[in-house]
Amino acid sequence: MNINSSATLERVYDLRQRKILSKIIDKDTTISLEGRDPLENTMVLNMGPQHPATHGVLRVLLRLDGETVERCVPELGYLHRGYEKLGENISFHEFLPHTDRLDYLSPLSNNVGYALAVEKAAGIETPERAVWIRTLISELARISSHLMAMGAMAMDVGAVTMLLWTFREREKLYDIFEKICGARFTTSYTRIGGVANDFTPDVLPMIRKFIEEFPANLRDFEGLINRNRIFVERVSGIGVITGPEAIALGLTGACLRGSGIPHDLRRDEPYLMYDQLDFDVITYSDGDCLSRYLTRGDEMKESVKIVNQLLAKIPTGPTLADDAKNVLPGKTEIYTKMEELIHDFMLINFGVQPEPGEIYSAIEAPKGELGFYIVSDGTGHAWRMKIRSPSFCNLQALTPMCEGSMISDVVAIIGSIDPVMGEADK
Amino acid sequence: MTLAERLERIKGIVLPTLTEHFGEGTLSHAEHRGELSISVPRERLVELVRYLRDEPTLAFTMLKDLCAVDWNRRKERFELIYNLWSLDNSVRLRVKCFTEEKAPHVDSLTGLFTAANWYERETYDMHGIIFDGHPDLRRMYMPEDFVDPNSGEPLYPLRKEFPMMGVPGSMPLPERN
């Protein structure tokens, strides 16, 4: 073969162009090429909805100039199940299991948020022990959700060990959840007026043991990665969102506090027992991916602090309100007492009937502010049930965070926002 | 803080300033379970929200949520609810306005809050409210061609006439092998 004649500059250039073309034209990539040279044009890359780093079925369309993201358009709706429509058509009791499927990484705190909203609408008082249990499980759910967020974000940028370690801890929490309510994932633990059942005697020792061991494990995670130069330089300075921008975007949770705004509903609009507990609102001021990551890590320490305070003051008493018109009676009572049977029949068929009016009740869920806006017309189901889901609002920040950054940063940014599509798509 | 105390607190912060600035009669307020809602004619919505945001003593700088309610039998069928939060005062306020059925238009708040972008898209998707001045009013969750197969009219799932079961033929289903 005559090398001299084949290896002209033109031919090599031509071959390289064709290779680049065949590389970027594959079945999973949608590209648009205008003109001859793909490197001189912008490229449209379709990321998702089935992409491992998008935490579910998020689809992001990116227009790239080389490796720089020029434009980022998130597309939602691949997990839209119409929960707001369902909420208008089924009774308040029936809707409770659906709240598990909103933010499926912290179902316990969704249950609490929903139960608080219905109780506010119907004016139901919860007994002291139920409030205590709800506060406790909300914090455990926060730890479990933040563990997942930390591990997944670290994995997205290449530190796979972290995910395995955080999953190990999360597994222990799921064992506790299983002991509390019989389910690991879709808990449906709260009831309107209280919680489904009291803790069994072996739950508190399990929680105590977990909380005792957890700080040391958390230190291990932080030792593994927080001072790791590869990780820190990879995630610091990317996806920056300033404080004023974060406020205008309506961000909540770690995304807002990572930008230096100390806003936490547990302190600013106390619900449950949070006004009697001592904890700090964690903020980091850089507003980048590392800040959001560190915020979550420190929030877990605060949660441990809260759980320890809660474990020190255990109230006794009933876990379900004594309010026959609104609260489902226990199975034994239904089978043995006529009165309870009638109440159960009425509640199942007609449901809780809050007086006409509208309420908005929000909790500080692990991802941010989870709010339920319920408009009641006095019947057994809501006239309008709006779910203010933190992931939906936080995802809106993806566009300003991604534009101008590199394509490899997109997965780290998504990981640092920590969206759950079940909640964002409702 | 009980609900009644919260209500007194927010009323003390919001109502005197608003009455002073907008005068008597323009705004009306309602309270339920310790929450305050202010109704405004929709022509003055943007003006009111801008005032609530920029007035230093109020500082409602966060738009937490936005949604519509379909009151299907009223003449002014759609009610829009804006959920504002003041970081400085730690209080929540609802601002409401109505829009009619035939041409449900309302001014967009995207000029005041970047957050309004997606919220308004969601409300447009679910109720078909047109937000005048929105830069990118597309559907949020449903496909862009979500229309009634018979009439060709766009469908809005959270309107009360939309059936719980969905409309047959409005969504493409996977083909049977």
Protein architecture, described:
The complex is a heterodimer of chains A (426) and B (177). Chain A has 426 residues and is mainly α. Chain A is built from 19 helices and eight strands. In chain A, the strands form three sheets. A three-stranded antiparallel sheet of chain A has the order 1-2-3. In chain A, strands 6-7-8 form a three-stranded antiparallel sheet. The longest helix of chain A has 29 residues, at 128-156. Chain A is globular, with a radius of gyration of 25 Å. Chain A starts with a helix and ends with a helix. Chain B has 177 residues and is an alpha/beta fold. Chain B has three helices and seven strands; from the N terminus they run H-E-E-H-E-E-E-E-H-E. A five-stranded mixed sheet of chain B has the order 1-2-5-4-3. A two-stranded parallel sheet of chain B has the order 6-7. In chain B, strand 6, helix 3 (116-127) and strand 7 form a beta-alpha-beta unit. Chain B is elongated and about 65 Å long. The N and C termini of chain B lie far apart (62 Å). Chain A binds chain B through residues 76-77, 80, 82, 84-86, 88-89, 120-121, 123, 245, 247-250, 252, 261, 263, 268-270, 275, 357-360, 362, 369, 371, 373, 375, 383-384, 386, 388, 392-393, 395-396, 400, 425-426, and chain B through 1, 32-33, 35, 37, 61-65, 67, 69-70, 81, 83, 87, 90, 92, 94, 113-115, 117-119, 122, 126, 139-143, 157-158, 162, 164.
